[in-house]
Amino acid sequence: MSRKHRSYLYLLIGFAAIIGLSFPFEAGLNSYDMRIVINVGISMILAASLNLINGFTGQFSLGHAGFMAIGAYTASALTTMVFGTTEGTTQELLFLVVLIAGGVSAAIAGLLIGIPSLRLKGDYLAIVTLGFGEIIRVVLQNIEPLGGSLGISGIPRYTTFIWTFGILAVLIFVTENLMRSTYGRGFLATRDDEIAAESVGVNTTKYKVTAFVVGAFFAGIAGGLYGHYNSLIRPLDFGFLKSVEIVVMVILGGMGSTWGVLLAAALLTYLPEALREVELFGIKFRDFRMTIYALSLILLMIFRPQGLLGDFNAEEFIRKIRGKPKKPATTET
Amino acid sequence: MSLLNLKNLTMRFGGLTAVDAVTETIEPLLLMGLIGPNGAGKTTVFNMITGVYLPTEGQISFDGQNLVGQKPHEIAGTGIARTFQNIRLFPSLSVFDNVRVGFNNALSIGILGSILQPRSFWRGEKEIAEKIDHLLEMFGLLDQRNELAKNLSYGDQRRVEIVRAMATDPKLLLLDEPAAGMNPTEKQKLMSLIRYLRDEFQIAILLIEHDMHVVMGICERITVLDHGAKIASGTPEEVKNNPEVVKAYLGHSE
Ligand SMILES: Nc1ncnc2c1ncn2[C@@H]1O[C@H](COP(=O)(O)OP(=O)(O)OP(=O)(O)O)[C@@H](O)[C@H]1O
Ligand SMILES: [Mg+2]
Fold it and tell me: Chains A and B: how many Cβ contacts under 8 Å?
C-alpha cells in the first residue's frame, strides 16, 4: 500500500468497521447505553475539532459550545420548520443537508469572530471567545421563533450510530491529512513561534482563521447530531460549562494528539454516566463532576503535562508493533 | 540599482532612540557587515526591515517596493529572510519540518488539495523533500534530519535556522550573530559556508556579528552603528582604522 492512498484506505476500513459494529450495537444495547455511545461519539467530534484550534494551532478558544449551538439550532430549525419529518432515503439526504448547513453556519460564525479576534493573544482570545459563546446563548434565549429559553423540541431522531461515527471518521481523515500538508505545518509553526513563522512567509492569521473555521464547522455538525438525537435543544445545553468540558478533553488528551484527545473525550463522557449514582461522602458524583475535572487537570499538569497520550503517534506505534524500523517520515512515496 | 534602501530609518522606544536616522544601501550580491557595541541598535534595524517593528520614521524599500507597513510574512514573500539572535526554531518540529515550513508558500495547493491529497500533492511534497535534503546535506545536517529541533546543539540550531531561511528562496539574507556560541572550528566552517551561500544562490547577505575575525574575514563592506547612529561605513580596512569606530568600541570596553 503506497503512502498516497493510505488515508483513503484507513477511511474505508473505518466506515466498514462502523457499519459492522452498528449491528451488534443497535441490537444489543438498550436505549440508555446507546445514548452514552452516541454522546461519546459527539464528544469525540467536539474535542477533535477543538483540538485543531487549541491543540495544533495553539489558540486558546473557550467558545466551542457556541459553534455547536449555532449548528444545532440551524440544523434542527431546518428539519422542524422547513423540511418536516421524512423517511427513508429522503430522510438520510435531508439529514446530510441540514447537518452541513449547521456546519456551514457555524463556520461562517467562526470566520466572523475569528478574523478580528485571532489577532489577540492568549488570555484575550480566551475571553473574547468565552464572551462569544455566552452571547450566542443569550441571543438564542431571546429569539422567540426558536423557542426562547425553552428551545426547539420535537426534533425527529435521525442521528444514528453510523451517522455519528461516520462523521467522526471523516473528521479524523480531514485532520490527519491536513496535518500532513502545508496547513498542518502552518498550524504547528504558528503554535510554536509566530514571529519565526511569519519570518519565513507563513501568514499566521490565515492559518489561525482556517483552524478556527474548520473546527467550528465540525462543532456545528456535532450540534446537528446532538439536536437530532436529543429531540430537544435548549440554549442552556450550550453554556460556558460545555465549552470548558471540551477544553478539558483537549488538555487531558494532550493538546494536539488526536488519539489522546479522542480517548479523553470518551473517558470524560462515559465515566460521569457510569459513576452517576456513585456517592462519595454523601454527595452524588454528578454533583461534584466539575470538581473532579478540576482535580484531574491539576494532577495531570503535575504528573503528565504532555497529556494522557502526549506525543503518541499511532502510525509509529503500529510500525513498532510490526517490528519495522523507523523510516524517515516523508521521502518514501 | 541597489537592492535594499534604508532612508532616515529611526526607531524610538519611549524616550530611547534605538536607531537614529540611519541611511544605508545594500547592493545585490554584496556581503555586508553590520557591527557596533551592545545595544547599538543592530537587531532593531533587522526587526524594522522584516516588519517585526514599525519604524517611528524613515523609509525602507526593497527591490523597488516600499516595505514599511507590510506584514512580516509579506516582507518574507518579497525575498527577505532572516535568522534570530536568540534562535527561534519551531521546537516541537523535526529539523526536516522546520525547513519544510520555509517551503510552505512554494507548495500552496489550497485547503481542498491538502485534504484530498491528489497526485499533484504528493508530487509537490516529494520535490520539496528532495530540495530540503539537498539543503540539509549542504549544511551537514542530514544526520539530524528527523531530530526534534529542540534537541540539537546550539551550533546546529543556528545552522538549521539558516537552512530554514534559505528555504524561502530569498534575495537578501539577514543573519543576526550567526557565529555566537560556536567554537573556532565551527566559526571557520560557517565563514566559508556564508561565502558559498552568496555565490551559489546569488544573494546579498547582511550580517550582524561581534566576532571581528568573522566580520573582517568575510564582509566586503561594513557599517558601524553606535547608540543607534551610523558612525562609519566602508571596507573592512577603512572601518578598522576609523578613529570614531575605535573610540566607540573602546568607550564600551568590555
Ligand atoms: N522592544 C523593545 N522595547 C524597548 N526597548 C528596546 C526594544 N528592543 C530593543 N530595545 C532597546 O534598543 C536598544 C538597541 O537594541 P538592539 O537589540 O537593537 O541592540 P543590538 O545592537 O542588537 O545589541 P546586541 O549586540 O547586544 O544584540 C537597546 O537599548 C535595547 O534595550
Ligand atoms: Mg542584537
Answer: 119
- Pairing relationship of beta strands B4-13 and B57-62 according to DSSP bridges: antiparallel
DSSP one-letter code for B174:
E
Domain boundaries, chain B: 1-79+170-254, 89-168
In this structure, the strands spanning A279-280 and B16-26 are unpaired
pTM for the full predicted model: 0.91
Contact A182 B77 (CB under 8 A): no
Ligand 1 close to Cβ of residue B49 (< 6 A) = no
Instruction: For chain A, give every domain's residue range.
Output: 3-239
Higher pLDDT, A174 or A308: A174
Ligand 1 atom at minimum distance from B19 CA: 14
Q: Whose CA is nearest to atom 11 of ligand 1?
A: B18
> pLDDT tens-digit profile of B98-148?
999 999 999 878 999 999 999 999 999 999 999 999 999 999 999 999 999
The pLDDT of residue A106 is above 60: yes
- Whether residue A290 lies within 8 A of chain B, CB to CB, comes out as no
Comparing CA positions, the residue from A129, A128, A113, A110 lying closest to residue A214 is A110
Give the ipTM of the model, two decimals please.
Answer: 0.94
**Cα B145 to Cα A206: distance, rounded to the nearest angstrom:** 28
Contacts of A185 in chain B (CB under 8 A): 93, 97, 100-101, 104
Which residue bears the cell 503500529? Answer: A318
Which amino acid type is present at position A279?
E
- The answer, yes or no, to whether any atom of ligand 1 lies below 6 A from the CB of B38, is yes
Say what percent of chain B tops pLDDT 90.
89
Nearest to A179 by CA among B18, B83, B92: B92
B92 to chain A: nearest residue by CA?
A192
What pLDDT, in 10s, does the model give residues A171-225?
A: 999 999 999 999 999 999 999 999 999 999 999 999 999 999 999 999 999 999 9
Residues A217 and A188: their CA atoms lie apart, in Å, by: 20
Q: Is the pLDDT assigned to residue A140 strictly greater than 80?
A: yes
Q: State how far the Cα of A217 lies from the Cα of B107, in Å rounded to an integer.
A: 25
Asked if the B1-79+170-254 domain carries CATH number 1.10.150.20, the reply is no
Is pLDDT at A324 greater than 90 in this prediction? Answer: no
Helix runs in B80-211, H state only: 95-102, 110-116, 119-138, 154-166, 184-201
CA separation for the pair A307, A251 (Å, rounded): 6
Sign, Cα dihedral of A187, A191, A194, A200: negative
Split at pLDDT 50, 70, 90, the class of A331 is very low
Residue A4 has pLDDT above 80, yes or no: no
In chain B, residues with a C-beta closer than 8 Å to the C-beta of A181 are 109, 113-115, 117, 121
Residues in chain B: 254
